[in-house]
Design brief:
The chain has 6 helices and no strands. By secondary structure, it is mainly α.
């Protein structure tokens, strides 16, 4: 299961760098759901992982749509905004690895409210 989760994370990160978030969700979710069922990965956990992966992809070059938005709002060039965002990538990737490795981090609170 951890190898499948690693592969799914890499696919989502790569796709998030080049495509719109809604399009990726609509295209890749039906493709990845059977893989989740094969490896017994919870769908709620995968939803959280998918959203975090795509958010990281939105601030990652080369396309990084949020980089363009931030550069326009801050009235700065794209390179300086990208360099300013790099330190924030480290905790995002660390959290992504943690919630991928330890499903209890994402499933404990929903388990309180929904009988899981």
């Amino acid at each position: 299961p951890w190898q499948a989760m690693l592969l799914l994370n890499l696919i989502l990160l790569f796709a998030g760098m080049f495509m719109e978030t809604v399009a990726i969700i609509l295209i890749l979710t039906p493709i990845m759901l059977p893989v989740l069922d094969i490896y017994d990965i919870d769908h709620v956990q995968f939803g959280v992982i998918m959203v975090l992966n795509l958010m990281i992809g939105l601030i990652t070059p080369p396309i990084g749509l949020l980089l363009f938005v931030m550069a326009r709002i801050a009235r700065l060039d794209l390179v300086s905004v990208t360099v300013a965002c790099l330190p924030f990538m480290v905790p995002l990737v660390v959290v992504l690895l943690l919630i991928s490795a330890f499903p209890a981090l994402t499933l404990t609170v929903p388990g309180w409210f929904f009988d899981r």
